[in-house]
Write a structure and sequence with these properties.
The chain has 253 residues and is α/β, with parallel strands linked by helices. It is globular. The chain is 34% helix and 19% strand. The protein has one domain. The strands form 2 sheets. It has a 6-stranded mixed sheet, with helices on both faces. A two-stranded antiparallel sheet has the order 6-7. Helix 1 runs parallel beside helix 8 and helix 4 runs parallel beside helix 8. The two termini are 21 Å apart.
Amino acid sequence: MKRSPSKLEIASLNTLGNKLQSKTRTANDAAFIRKHLPAFMAKTSPPTPRGERRKDYRLSIVPQDDRFDPKSAERRLEARLWRMFESGSFPFFDGIGQIISFQVPIYSEKKKHGWGSIDLLGMDDSDGYPVVIELKIAKKTIEPALRAVIEAVSYMIALRGNWADFAPEWSKRTKRGEISAPKTLTALVLAPSDYWTTVEGDEYLKDALRNLKDLVNALADCCYAVRFGSIEAKDSGDWRITGAAKEISIPFP
């Protein structure tokens, strides 16, 4: 197995996206970002507050919401997870009892400048802060887990940077009192079990997990924690989910 060298240059984390698609480069990409992490984070500036443009972060969801997209398997899974765990009647994941919303927009202009929407937004049981959930599914061309980690971190940076704008809406949606700007935030990279099975069976994707773990440890030192989870979900036109998500460790034992 020959890894391809990383082609990354230091830039805002939210602009890396498609540059992290190559499985032959993913181990070296993770190592490069880890080596230059302070420079990458210094380059990452949150967008201007959403309130200036579209009034809110769309934390509330209505029945005819345009976020319900039956053509997208990933979007259908987001909607299914939200429906199942929005009420908090039974826990979604250890420490995350409730999913508050999905497809939460971070960009503030028609030109997104590399900013997108948070796949799912959960709530931390212990402190009430938002938990960024990045969802991946097994596709014909599978996306490396590194991409999900970087997307999640960029969204955590945006939430912290726009906290004064975001906090009132978060408080209203969660029915909790306003809470001060977070010193730390947590993200969850979540995927159906068949995604993780594919990663474990691919020599490049599995090989990259050790470097990815080193990057995750460095991010934790910067007050951005990243966890990994697996959920039993099967898609037959509409997702069937059995039980809560479970935490997994990387690299795999």
